[in-house]
Amino acid sequence: MRAEVFPKPELPGHAVLRLYGTDASPEGMTLLIERRQGPDRFLSESGWQRTESWLEPQRIDAFNGGLDLHVGPRVCDLVAGMTVRLAIREPDVGMVDTTVAAWPAMQTSGAHDPDRQTSDTVAGRTDKEMRQARPRDEQATVIAARPVQPEPAPEPAPEPFIEPTLPAAFPSPPPPAPEPIERPSVLSQRETPKSNLPLILGLVFGLLFLIAAAGGAYWWFVLRDKGTTIVDKPKPPIDKPKPPDEKPKPPDEKASQDKPDYATPIRKQVDDLFATNPTPEQLVERGRRFVRQGQIEGAFLVWRKAADQGYPPAAFELAGLYDPVNPIPNTPFRLNAERAAGLYETAAKAGIVPAMTRLGLLYAKGADGFPADKAKARDWLKQAADKGDTDAKMALDAL
């Protein structure tokens, strides 16, 4: 997702935040704005604070490929000229998309942060008040006009001095020739260098003699009586382990598939799956894998799409996210017995036996805001028991 801000010139302090590349639903959507500096980084209804605060835009308009969020002075007065992080959240899903946007230095209203007002045409305020209301780094520096002093004219450069020359009748005498200085020959002063080659050769031959003597002594005292050398000594055989008769087990494909992909966001994994046009059966199986990986949000998105296509098994799986009697472990959704009953009934009428049993247990026990109905519970449990469901038969006997 990427974002772009369009200020409204006719309404100071109002702008349109356009979000591209998101298919989020505008119903009940909220907005999170976070800046980088200071401990109070999150924008709320009363200003900047340290904890997250989700804001409701004035209006949300959807278009092909994105959303237009209309925001007013409570946002524009405080974030104009900043680079902020934006996030949107759906009521039943949570945070679905995030991006970074550079908010332009726009004309603000001054209602929520007078110090950030950038308009000089507000009625009833003088130029001095406007300059005091701006931040110090935005105030214009006024420099008083000063009379320009004319620069002094440059002094003329002095004429170069030319030494007078004597006439040709009086020629100058030639300089005296230097007397030759006799120096001793350098070769005569140096002595012929002596060669170190004999000393080096003597050291090399002496070292070779010591090595040969050490090798001869080792053979005389150690190897002479053994009649063999270290190289000829046989090595003991090494017992190599025999390969096992059993073939190695093939890797567990299901375990490898259940390994969660933490590097790719859930929304990106779901979008890539939807791009392949999967069947409802594939969507239900992918949702079960999401549950085994502990990624319940992904299971909700794929099951909801399959249920919207009229696939009853998807409705049965989706009901488990809201069932207060038999909930899916670690479900992040608020339990809602009425919603779960509606989804179970859709699956039960399609002949799914576990859905009949779950619906009967829901009617038998009831929940907050969902009254128990023994007659309906007995009816659904009996239908499931007649089809061979042992859990339904036990619950029917207990009822």
Give your account of this protein's structure:
By secondary structure, the protein is an alpha+beta fold. Among the domains are: 2-113, Immunoglobulin-like; 258-393, Serine Threonine Protein Phosphatase 5, Tetratricopeptide repeat. The protein is built from 13 helices and nine strands. The protein has helices at 73-79, 127-133, 186-189, 197-223, 253-257, 266-274, 280-292, 296-308, 312-319, 337-349, 353-365, 374-386, 390-398, and strands spanning 2-7, 15-20, 30-34, 42-44, 47-49, 59-63, 66-71, 83-90, 94-102. A four-stranded antiparallel sheet has the order 1-2-7-6. The chain has a three-stranded antiparallel sheet with strand order 3-8-9, with no helix packed on it. It has a two-stranded antiparallel ribbon with strand order 4-5. Strand 8 (83-90) and strand 9 form a beta hairpin. Helix 7 (280-292) runs antiparallel to helix 8, helix 11 packs antiparallel against helix 12 (374-386) and helix 12 (374-386) packs antiparallel against helix 13 (390-398).
